[in-house]
Structures are given as C-alpha cells and as structure tokens.
Amino acid sequence: MTSRKLAGRIGAGLTALALAACSQETDMTADTTAAAPQTSALIERARGLEAPRAEQRPVEIEQLGFTRVDEYQWIKDDNWQQVMREPDVLDSDIRELLDAENAYLDAVMEPTADLQERIFQEIRGRIKEDDSSVPERDGGYEYFTRYREGGQYPIYARRPIDPETGEPAGEEEILVDGDAEAADFDYLDFSSMEHSPDHQYVAFGVDIRGSEYYEIRIREIATGAIVATLTDESSGDFVWANDSETLYWVWRDENSRSKRVYRQSRSGGASELIYEEPDDGFFVSVGTSDGDNYVVINAGGHTSNELRLIDANDPTAEPQLIAPREENVEYYLTEARDRFYFLTNADGAVDFKIVAAPIDNPGRENWEDVVAHRPGTLINAVIGFADWQVRMERQNALPRIVVHNYESGEEYDIAFDEEAYSLGISEGYEFETDTLRFSYESPSTPEETYDFDMASRERVLLKRQEVPSGHNPEDYVVRRIMAPGHDGVEIPVTILHHRDTPVDGSAPLLLYGYGSYGITIPAAFRVTPLPLVDRGMVYAIAHIRGGMANGYQWYLDGKLEQKINTFRDFVSAGEALASEGYTSRGNIVAYGGSAGGLLVGAAINLQPDLFAGAIAAVPFVDVINTMSDAELPLTPPEWPEWGNPIENAQDYETMYAYSPYDQIQEMDYPHVLATGGLTDPRVTYWEPTKFVARLRDRRTDDGLTLLKMNMGAGHGGASGRFDSLRETALNWAFALMVVGLADEEVEAIAAE
What we know:
By secondary structure, this protein is α+β, with helices and mostly antiparallel strands.
C-alpha cells in the first residue's frame, strides 16, 4: 500500500509499560553486556584512534510535568530551515564537528579502502550499465528510460511506433538527458517525468540540493528548449491536464510541507491557487484517474484522507469533494467506463474492501460493496482498465495478483510457487487494453517483466534482468521461516545465503528490518547484498509488525502503544535465526534506514549482546525532541502514527520510553555506524549526530561509534547510481569488519 502513502520520516514508538513488561519477561536488565567482539586487527587498530568529542551544553527541557536534559541540543542549527536550502550557512561549530566526525570515520575505515573498492566493483559489475526499461506504449510512441555506459543518471526517451504492428518505426528521441542535466551539480534528483498528452512537451522536476524542493521545467520536445520553469518550490508532484497546456503542481512551504495545489500554463505566467490544505497533519498530492478523465487531489495523513476531482478536459474546472475526511478512514479512486470504484477501509474493513459508486454521485452514501472485506487478506493496490480491474493482495506474507472482468464478473488469480517472492503491477499509459504488465522476482531470481493477456491468460516474457558479471540462482538458497514472537505470533523472515554457507551457527548474519508506516519490505532480488552473501554472511529480512506483511492488523499491532512489538519482533527474528543455526548470538549485524534506523537504535538498547554491529542509516533516533517540535516538516503529519507528546502525557511517556537517543544507557554496545545527510528534511542531520555523540560518551566498552555525514545530500544519500553504491560499499566493509571477515581479505588485497 506504499504507493498510497505519503512519504514521511520513518519513526515509531513503544510504551513505558510495555518496556517494563519486556524487561520482566526476558530479564533484559540482567544481561546488558554485548557479546565479546570478534578478534580483529582492524578493530584493534581503530581503537587506537582518537574519536571526536562533541561539547556538552546541557539544556533542561520541561514538558507536561516531565523534565529531560539534552546536552547536545546545540547541534540543531537555529537556522535549520535555511540550511536545508543553503548548506553553506551552517553554524561553524556544527560544521567543525561534522567535519571531525567524517575525518575520524575516514581514518577508521582507511585500511578497508581497497576492500570497499572491490565491493563497489562487484556490485557495479552486477548492474547492466547501458540498461533500459521495457518501453510503455502511448498513442504513436513508446516511452522508456535507459542509461549509457558509465552514466550516473537516467535518460528519458521515446521512439515512434507503427500503429498497425506496434513495432518501432523510427529513431530514438531523447527527452531528458540526466547526465547532461547533472553536469554542473554535485547532486541531482528527478521527481516526476511526464510527457504532455499531445506528445509535444515533457515536464520534469529537478532537485539540486537534496532538500526535496523541486523546480518544474517544461521542455519542448521538437526543439529541446526549456520553455518555462514554473517554480522552484514544488514537492516534485505534478500532472498534465488533457489540453496539454495546463499543469497542476504541488507547492511545498518553508517547513517542507506539501500544502497547496496550483494550476498554471506550460508557458509559465501567473499561477492559480486551486486548493490549500489547512491541517498541518495532512499533505497534498496530485494524480490522474485510470482513464485520465480526472485530475485527483489527495489530502491525507497517515490514517485518513479525502479526494477531490477536477475535470481533466476543462482547464477552468473547480475541484469537487468526493467524501469528507473521517478519522481512520481511507479511500482511493479507481476509474472504470461507467462508474468509480474505491479501495477503502470504511465500515471496519481493516484489510480494505472495494466499493462502487456512480460517477455522477460518488459520495459515500452511494458506496456499494463489490469485493467484501476478508480479514487476513490485505488488498493493497487496485488498477482499473476499461474492461478489467486488477488488484494486488497479500495473504500469509505473500503477494498475489487477482484479475476481474467487469462484464462477466469472472475473476482469477496469478499465483507463484517459490517460498518467498515479490510481484509488481504497472498501470501503463493505456486504458483501452487487455494487456497487464507485471514483474516477478525473488531474493535469488532476477526480475522478470511480463505482458499478460487478461483475456487469453497468456504471458509473454519481455525482459529478464541481466547480471553482466554472471548470476546463477542455483548458487543461492532462499528460505522463509516463521520466528516465534514474544506473544505467540509468528514473524515471517526471508533468508538468503550461499549454497556453500554452513547452517551450523558459525556464519555471521546481516539482519535487515523496517517496521513502520505499514510499509512492507518485499522479498525482491537485490544485487547489493550479494557481496556479503558471497563472503559467507547470511542476509535476512525480518517482516516485523509495523509493516503489513500479514495484513493491515499487522501494522496496527506495531504502532502507537503497540510499538514495542516492532522492536521485540526484530529481536525475536534474530534469536530464531540463531536457534535454527543460520547464525549465533553476538554474530549479527543489525541494519535499517529511516524507520529501520529507529528500529536498530531501539534493538541495540534492548538486546545489545545479540549484535556484533549495527548500521543505522539516516536514523530517526531523537524521537521525543523531534515529535515535540511542531515546526519540523513531518512532525504534525506523524502524530497519528505515534502520538502527540506536546499535548498528551501518555504519548510523551510512550515515546520517551523507546526513543533510542533518550534510552542510551551506561553499558556495553555493539559497534555502531550511523549515517546522515545535511539537507535531509525527513530525518534531520542532527538526529544521528546527537545519537553518536551521546552513545560514544555513555558506552562502557571500547567499541566503535562512527558517523558518516553526507555534506551535499539529503535523505537518499548520493544521487548518482554509482556514487550511492560507494556508500553501500562503506556499510558492507564496516559489517565485514565487525564480524571478523574483513581482516583476511584486507591482508590478501594488500599482498596482491
């Protein structure tokens, strides 16, 4: 259901009472010493280097009758909003600290430089450098994305096609050359890339700082000229109206919140305000209906929303509300020939249902159930065609595709046999078609893209992901186990290991998790973990509560006062992997980003001895301070996710009890690497910086506490497809180092 979710900072919470129960049941307070570190000359060398020490400037904070002291609050620049857009204005004391942290990280990791380069080249060697997407047909053209050999950024292009045969009938036209656009910048990110309905123009969003403020540029395809730049304050979200003259785009305010929808001509000029969201807890986005007859404005938070429709054929039309927002009610539009369908959780449909309504009167009073709610079967996506409706469902932590024919009412599902796999469906550009495009992959099977004839049920393989350096799925083992949770639930865990790796407890393991916002991590094929797996590490994904691997209730059972389940599920997954011989206690590296960074921080506070190391990427770890600052971009929208500690004392206690920064204790910890981005508006740079400073001060062992701060990027790290791999290579070198697998290879590389 992530396609319907607002992008947000990744966070979570758990209650003080639950933490107390956790300690009572598992005696966590009695065993807080981390496992003895692996014997490693690299670690011993690193221990001899002097780490930076952030100055302590204690600030006492009074809130709802509670008092906390934050000795590192000064690391948050008072001018943080301007820093997001102009990094050069960062306070000199803060910049000096961040530079010192980066220098220390470089010194610690310097002996692994050649190992990092080798890992980088291995990952890069598995990526087809001149790869291209399967073209999508729209009218007289097919549109696609490709890369050039050695290129960092995508090229967006098209070819004319023969209307009779559907085959290419002319030369490629480049619409936007990403490498050329990025030539003058250290960072570049594209948002939407949309051609006009008449195929004469292309609009695209560009961010050159990582702050997620996008310019919207309009290019005339025939000449290649930029004819207008509509704004530099967009969220990057926009759509064309059907006249190919009008665009609707979303404006982002000074707090980085998507608040307004504007209508504007492609040639620039004055913009017209169409909708403004008054609630700071709701963000707005724009899209189009399946048949492109309507522009759809979605105003939503994490657990409720409302839709407005604009006639896409009338550039003067006003938005019309479908159904007013209700607390904890969501609904999303699918268009058919003669009616609307809505995917919704109304009327207690926890795992969602599908309802129908007449186009001329689509209000909630006219909704009729057409696919009833089935507890445990989550409907997480619906696509409409003229004659067909396709839905993606998830049951028992596995996806499936269900195809429904409007005329006959017949439906069937497309099923697959592996223990763990991932599916994807594509809307494409065409509404009047019998063809569905879907993809299939598993942790060992590269992605396969198919066109599926919904009438004949025949499938045609269009593309199999190529791994240039070679890949044999038979070299790897994919397993799905169910880890017993603390309260009797079974937690799905996906496992990937090399066929030659022994399952006798001797292998180290990297355990990945997320567990927030209902986002489910798919069991997909990724080339990035393979250098670890090829070196004898096991790679595992814990599908913990807080996601929706087992339905929407799985998400509800891992948020707010239930958030303890997320962290305990992760710990339970690690313990089950050790008990079944995939690894052993103290030989696990925890890994997660954003919400996963929160997960990592909470897990090492709860069970430090389970882990040899932890990688917390852009981690949301300063939870109580962040959720108490209503000016931060994503704080008000996230109060429904884990509570409001400004107004509610119970919410304050809940968050404080799990907040990784606030719960750092004087005890032994695993080795830790945290990362951040200076212009990140989602998890601000000071969160990992403060976390590292306090952890380094309080830990009672001599383990490593490292910070990598990207001074020229935001939440996603480096923007180039290869530059970002270097950050992965650093993470993997750290993981190999802390489990004792790096020393021998570093020595061997040096001897070559």
